[in-house]
């Protein structure tokens, strides 16, 4: 201070020193500020802001619940002889703060649209989630916790959406949950912009994701983090279990970047706390939730992995089930009784009282929601349809395409997607920087961005994997139907997310164009000869490769009508003739069954050509040369065809005719031998040349198909 004497006495030095040390201790006790923030907010300044809030009274019950959650995890994993103890023990205080105090939810209405969403991105720590869901009053009785990882239990090894009450997304593949959280946050922003009015706010919740070092090392996480920061998704809070440990080694063996600076550089607010200090975690969470800086927030929670089992805490061994042999001593050190799977009456009582508080807030929201519905009947009907999954008859709205024309199926898609967008206000589309090539831009509905959350065209940048995970998050959110696009050859970048969508029965649509060697000049790097066959091998993914514009219309209609899983729309770059050997109505109806007779034989059936996608017209041309007794079957979707009754399948592809059946598709051939005795396809990579020349170089011509059909 200016008044400080130039030569202070020893007593004055002691006084100033004491004051300084006291302030320093108070600052350290807060332990809730970012080490650095992009806005220039210093640690001291942020600490003072947080300290100015009302003092947080941490109930003793939360500390007790945290240790009992540890006990549940130890007992469940010990009984199963399988699982991951590290996160459930290391993040127990975080769980207590979230489920016992900060999250807004109603265990009796798990579909409440304005609930906070909690995603456990580090899904291997599933006992963390199951313990807190059980204690918080969800329909997850202790018997299910005791049956952790057992057959048919509600507590599987990794969280599964739609199986366990309170689980918001299927996680386990690391990093996916971060992308899911970003998708949920984006969906919430769109829902709020679409539904909220000046008089009534019905969407204002947050999305909270708990992740670890493994999640952040995955590339999908970095892609999603960049998207969230760029679009200023300030309703997203990412809690980072920063324990410095990965499975093989300590984390510093494989990473040395400054995670805080990485997030700051991508537009995030960054806070850092002691993850075992519930007061600090609470203050950081409230700061993140109430901040109006327009940024998503990362809360770095410094934790000790496996805390509670002294023999392994803070080591790589704590990650898995190595702590099982210390079950009894650990439980004793935590102050738990001998009874396994113990939760005290005090903890159950605490959460019962907390549930009353949550339900009271829920009831207040319901009152606002009722007023909103009365004042906004059109929006209310749109929301009702979105929540229930009601979809219009989009097929009847789609344009018809004149026979004799040639239209690339991606261009046909550009037309048929418009009535979908106009009739479904919660239909979202997007592209990984390829709207101009994929032809899936929705007209007249605006672009989703930090400047317009009501927009419905998403620009993901060149981030296919994040696009897939974000699409899943939008699907998990429960209001929207979402689609995303890129070149088919780049679908491999997003396959981890596609697999989760199929496993989770999400009605996502993928628009993958440039479907074959017909891509031409871009060469073998962009000619996906093996990709479609790989996609067809994935369970619960309907792969639709339409052969002309009319089949494309039906394929899009199916992607909307389907509610039990994702649909892949595989579309051509090159123009394809519109087949005129059967009516447009028959083609559309047949496409919805996966396969149909596109050209019926005259007289006795002499042979069958199965034509698929871009090669359907080649099959029709070859059949005309082979004679009137040849049938052409179009099979745009193997999965749909195999779901048809046996008599329908037999009517299209008689088993007795397999020896006289030839399949043609410009891709690898192996899977087609299930239906055909001979296959014309491409079992090697392509080459760079105009598309028609590539087809000729690879032997994909009507003449060669005729020759193969005639061969003995």
Automatic annotation (TrEMBL):
The active site is at 464 (proton donor). Binds 1 thiamine pyrophosphate per subunit. During the reaction, the substrate forms a covalent intermediate with the cofactor. Binds 1 Mg(2+) ion per subunit. Can also utilize other divalent metal cations, such as Ca(2+), Mn(2+) and Co(2+). GO terms for cellular component: cytosol. Keywords: Calcium, Magnesium, Metal-binding, Thiamine pyrophosphate, Transferase. Its EC number is 2.2.1.1. The keyword Cell division does not apply. The keyword Calcium applies. Thiamine diphosphate binds at residues 124, 172-174, 214, 243, 319, 490. It catalyses: D-sedoheptulose 7-phosphate + D-glyceraldehyde 3-phosphate = aldehydo-D-ribose 5-phosphate + D-xylulose 5-phosphate. One of its GO terms (molecular function) is transketolase activity. GO terms for biological process: pentose-phosphate shunt. Homodimer. This is transketolase. It comes from Strombidinopsis acuminata.
């Amino acid at each position: 201070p200016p008044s400080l004497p130039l030569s202070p006495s020893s007593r004055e030095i002691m006084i100033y020193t004491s004051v300084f040390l006291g302030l320093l201790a108070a600052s350290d006790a807060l332990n809730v500020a970012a080490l650095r923030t992009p806005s220039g907010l210093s640690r001291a300044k942020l600490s003072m802001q947080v300290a100015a809030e009302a003092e947080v009274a941490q109930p003793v019950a939360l500390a007790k619940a945290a240790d009992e959650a540890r006990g549940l995890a130890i007992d469940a994993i010990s009984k199963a002889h399988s699982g991951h103890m590290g996160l459930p023990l290391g993040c127990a205080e975080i769980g207590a703060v979230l489920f016992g105090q900060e999250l807004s939810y109603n265990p009796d209405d798990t579909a409440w649209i304005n609930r906070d969403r909690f995603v456990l991105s580090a899904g291997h720590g599933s006992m963390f989630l199951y313990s807190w869901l059980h204690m918080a009053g969800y329909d997850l009785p202790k018997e299910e916790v005791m049956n952790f990882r057992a057959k048919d239990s509600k507590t599987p090894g990794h969280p599964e959406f739609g199986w366990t009450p309170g689980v918001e997304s299927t996680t386990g593949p690391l990093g996916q949950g971060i992308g899911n959280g970003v998708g949920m946050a984006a969906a919430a922003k769109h829902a709020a912009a679409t539904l909220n009015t000046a008089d009534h706010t019905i969407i204002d919740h947050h999305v909270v994701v708990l992740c670890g070092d493994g999640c952040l090392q995955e590339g999908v996480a970095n892609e999603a983090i960049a998207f969230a920061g760029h679009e200023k998704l300030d309703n997203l809070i990412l809690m980072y279990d920063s324990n410095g440990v990965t499975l093989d080694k300590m984390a510093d063996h494989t990473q040395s970047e400054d995670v805080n600076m990485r997030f700051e550089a991508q537009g995030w607010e960054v806070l850092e706390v002691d993850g075992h200090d519930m007061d600090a975690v609470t203050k950081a969470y409230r700061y993140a939730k109430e901040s109006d800086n327009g940024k998503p927030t990362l809360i770095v929670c410094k934790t000790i992995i496996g805390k509670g089992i002294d023999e392994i805490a803070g080591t790589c061994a704590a990650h898995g089930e190595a702590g099982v042999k210390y079950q009894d001593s650990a439980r004793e050190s935590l102050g738990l009784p001998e009874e396994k799977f113990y939760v005290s009456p005090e903890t159950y009582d605490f959460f019962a009282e907390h549930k009353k508080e949550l339900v009271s807030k829920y009831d207040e929201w319901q009152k606002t929601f009722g007023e909103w519905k009365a004042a906004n009947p059109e929006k209310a009907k749109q929301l009702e349809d979105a929540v229930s999954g009601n979809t219009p008859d989009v097929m009847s709205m789609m344009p018809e395409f004149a026979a004799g024309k040639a239209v690339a199926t991606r261009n046909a898609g550009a037309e048929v997607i418009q009535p979908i967008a106009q009739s479904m206000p919660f239909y979202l589309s997007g592209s990984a920087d390829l709207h101009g090539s994929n032809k899936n831009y929705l007209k007249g509905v605006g672009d989703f961005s930090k400047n317009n959350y009501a927009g419905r065209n998403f620009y993901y940048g060149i981030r296919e994997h994040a696009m897939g995970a974000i699409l899943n998050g939008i699907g998990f959110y429960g209001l929207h139907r979402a689609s995303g696009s890129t070149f088919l050859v780049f679908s491999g970048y997003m396959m981890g997310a596609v697999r989760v969508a199929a496993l989770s029965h999400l009605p996502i649509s993928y628009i993958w164009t440039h479907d074959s060697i017909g891509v031409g000049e871009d060469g073998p790097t962009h000619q996906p000869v093996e990709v479609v066959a790989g996609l067809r091998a994935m369970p619960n993914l309907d792969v639709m490769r339409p052969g002309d514009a009319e089949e494309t219309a039906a394929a899009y209609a199916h992607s909307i009508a389907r509610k039990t899983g994702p649909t892949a729309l595989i579309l051509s770059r090159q123009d394809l003739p519109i087949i005129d050997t059967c009516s447009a109505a028959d083609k559309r109806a047949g496409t919805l069954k996966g396969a149909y007779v596109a050209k019926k034989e005259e007289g006795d059936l002499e042979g069958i050509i199965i034509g698929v996608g871009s090669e359907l017209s080649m099959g029709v041309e070859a059949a005309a040369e082979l004679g009137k007794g040849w049938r052409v079957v179009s099979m745009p979707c193997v999965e749909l065809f195999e779901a048809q009754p046996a008599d329908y399948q037999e009517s299209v592809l008689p088993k007795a005719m397999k020896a006289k059946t030839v399949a043609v598709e410009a891709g690898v051939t192996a899977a087609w031998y299930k239906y055909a005795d001979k296959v014309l396809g491409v079992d090697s990579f392509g080459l760079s040349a105009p598309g028609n020349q590539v087809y000729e170089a690879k032997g994909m011509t009507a003449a060669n198909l005729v020759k193969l059909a005639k061969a003995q």
